[in-house]
Amino acid sequence: MRLSTLSNKEDVLQGLSHLKNGGSLYVFDTETTGLSAKNDRILTFSSQRIVLGTNGEICALEEFEVWIKNGPVPAEASAINGITDDMLNERGIPEDEAMERRRALFGKLQREAL
Description:
37% of the residues lie in helices and 26% in strands. It is α+β, with helices and mostly antiparallel strands.
């Protein structure tokens, strides 16, 4: 995920407006096979740390992205998120490994917040 591809930069700017110079904001994104928590699966999970610089500039740092082998991807989902079975086969890792990486990321963020 890149700051330039966020669909609503205004939300990011509003979040950053509450920070002092040097403060940061984490943005998270998921792509799924659908909207049902019971029946659909997560395909990607990503985050990016966005920092407000001393001159008011926005800098995107510390990108995290994991692709999960949770196919097959329904055609309807692929039409929306652009993710294909081939992409998951090429980039994806098993779900348990992906969730462990996500837990490690959240643990790091929690330690940093203390």
